[in-house]
């Protein structure tokens, strides 16, 4: 959806 | 050998619209599932501790790759009153699903092939939220369903005594306000997609109350406590908020 963030950018193991 | 019998099969229904396949991590402490939804904006985390099962037995670590689409169909036709048992032996390629309808005594058994799921590891950091609000889960579901009939997203505003869900679209606007007795570090306002909140609220039958943990810069958390565990739904904030 437009404007919706990607959850992976918060939770993926770096 | 692994054997777990679970009386809240409705949990499967609560997550089926978010994830299609998932590894179920079975340990002696219980069963855990952690997965991103198909559109990569939400994460589902479920923990069911061994004490919530009767019986529970797991003598080695086991990852069962399960199609939730298939599991949902199996559970759906068994009805809400069914208990669900998972069994696996030393062959990790297949497992058994046993459904027992308590009212009729009917037992349905399946041998299911474990799916090989290429699942990325998600690390969920401990977070301090600006607001943690507990409200009746049925009220939360009613509000989300009602507003979503006409509108697409909802703005949550929380003050010390009330949480307000308000929404606007082409047809106009709507809002719902609920009292709460929770602690806030300050007033908060953020916007969440109603479609996802409606999905999360399918877990309503699992718990009398739902806890919303909100901050503007980090994923919001919608949590249902179940007996000996929890179902948590994390949702990414909108960009630019």
Structural account:
The complex is a heterodimer of chains A (14) and B (241). Chain A is rod-shaped. Chain A has 14 residues and is mostly helical. The model of chain A has no long low-confidence stretch (mean pLDDT 76). Chain A has one helix and no strands. The longest helix of chain A is centred in the C-terminal third of the chain and has 4 residues. Chain B is mainly β and 241 residues long. Chain B has four helices and 17 strands. In chain B, the strands form three sheets. An eight-stranded antiparallel sheet of chain B has the order 6-2-3-4-17-16-15-10. In chain B, a hairpin with a 5-residue loop joins strand 8 and strand 9. In chain B, helix 3 packs antiparallel against helix 4. The relative contact order of chain B is 0.19. The model of chain B has no long low-confidence stretch (mean pLDDT 85). Classes of the chains: A mainly alpha (14), B mainly beta (241). Chains A and B meet through helix 1 of A and loops of B.
Task: Sketch the major β-sheet of chain B.
Answer: 8 strands, antiparallel
Nearest-integer average pLDDT of chain B: 85
Radius of gyration of chain B: 19 Å
Determine the N-to-C terminus distance of chain A. Answer: 25 Å
Helix-and-strand structural type of chain A: mainly alpha
What overall geometry of chain A do the principal axes of the alpha carbons give?
rod-shaped
| Helix content percent band of chain A | 25-40%
- Radius of gyration of chain A (Å): 9 Å
Output mean pLDDT of chain A. 76
- Spans of chain B of at least 5 consecutive residues whose pLDDT stays below 50 are none
Our estimate of the beta-strand percent of chain B is over 45%
The SSE order of chain A reads H
Strand content of chain A: under 5%
Low-confidence stretches of chain A: none
Instruction: List how many beta strands of chain A DSSP finds.
Output: 0
Strand numbers in spatial order across the main sheet of chain B: 6-2-3-4-17-16-15-10
Number of helices of chain A: 1
- Quaternary organisation of the protein chains: heterodimer
């Amino acid at each position: 959806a437009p404007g919706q963030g990607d959850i992976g950018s918060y939770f993926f193991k770096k | 050998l692994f054997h777990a019998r679970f009386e809240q099969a409705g949990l499967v229904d609560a997550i089926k619209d978010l994830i299609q396949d998932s590894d179920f991590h079975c340990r002696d402490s219980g069963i855990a599932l952690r997965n991103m939804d198909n559109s990569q904006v939400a994460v589902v985390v479920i923990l069911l501790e061994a004490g919530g099962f009767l019986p529970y037995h797991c003598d080695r670590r086991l990852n069962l790759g399960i199609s939730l689409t298939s599991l949902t169909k199996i559970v759906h036709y068994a009805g809400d009153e069914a208990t669900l048992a998972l069994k696996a032996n030393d062959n990790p390629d297949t497992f058994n699903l046993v459904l027992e309808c308590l009212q009729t005594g009917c037992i349905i058994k399946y041998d299911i092939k474990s799916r090989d799921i290429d699942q990325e590891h998600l690390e969920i950091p401990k977070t301090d939220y600006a607001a943690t609000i507990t409200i009746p889960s049925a009220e939360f579901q009613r509000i989300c369903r009602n507003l979503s009939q006409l509108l697409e997203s909802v703005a949550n505003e929380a003050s010390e005594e009330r949480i307000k869900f308000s929404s606007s679209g082409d047809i106009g606007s709507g809002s719902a306000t609920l009292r709460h007795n929770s602690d806030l570090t300050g007033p908060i306002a953020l916007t969440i997609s109603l479609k996802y909140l409606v999905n999360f609220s399918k877990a309503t039958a699992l718990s009398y109350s739902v806890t919303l943990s909100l901050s503007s810069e980090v994923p919001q958390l919608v949590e249902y406590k179940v007996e000996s565990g929890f179902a948590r739904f994390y949702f990414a904030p909108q960009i630019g908020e």
